[in-house]
Amino acid sequence: MNDSDKPRKKSAFSRRGFLQGVGATGGALGTGILTQEEAQAQTAQGVITGETPITLTINGKPYKTTVEARNTLLDVLRNNLDLTAAKRVCDRGTCGACTVIMEGKAVYACTVLAIEAQGRKIETLEGLSTGNTRHPLIDAFVNNDAQQCGYCTPGFVMASKAMLDRTPSPTEQQVKEHLGGNLCRCGTYMGIRKAVVEASKQLKGGARA
Asked: Is residue 174 part of a domain?
């Protein structure tokens, strides 16, 4: 007797049984809806559900709000705290329009979860001017026509500040390399680079040629 003549062992799993099981649970498998018991079990296991209160330190001030675990820092800045300088453009971490500074580093706010930003120092464009006092980058961008439509400008300014904080006197080539993660659809790259070099002169009294 060959293998094809041998009686096949019946599987413990069947399509009919699977569908019946789904029907018995009200179709929750495909909807993502949790029963009250399941939600309580997940919460007991440390899974974050619903909204969670958090405190973010932005431009030296504490901001309290509630967020869902999925909310990005960009979501919270714009929708919860009315800090709208960081722009939502690609929302994919590729254009840099939502750049902010976190712990001294330029980051895309659309790629950082708000709950992960707790306890970290965050800087946004709103913090670069107080009354009539402005950061030199702001005036330098105006002087060199470094802004056009304005969507990318806040991200470029914050990325530039993060660079100048680490490299006070950059060359234009260094500026080009450091700002490679930010895109300008209007193509004002030359003006942006000149603006950063000009700002560095005001901040540190000179820049390398």
From this structure: yes
Give 36's contacts (C-beta < 8 A, 6+ positions apart). none
Percent helix, strand, coil in the chain (nearest 5)? 45, 15, 40
Which residues span the domain enclosing 161?
51-204
Note whether 109 and 97 are within 8 A (CB): no
Query: Is the pLDDT at 116 greater than 70, yes or no?
Result: yes
What is the spatial distance between Cα 39 and Cα 1, in angstroms, rounded to a whole number? 54
Between CA 53 and CA 60, with CA 57 as vertex, the angle to 5 degrees is 150
87, 60 Cβ separation under 8 angstroms: no
What secondary structure, in 3-state letters, does 132-159 show?
Answer: CEECHHHHHHHHCCCCCCCCCHHHHHHH
Identify the residue with better confidence: 7 or 161: 161
| Whether pLDDT at 168 is above 60 | yes
Q: Which of 150, 17, 36 is nearest to 89 (CA)?
A: 150
205: CB partners within 8 A, 6+ apart: none
Q: Supply 68's token pair.
A: 């869902």
Residue 11 lies in a domain: no
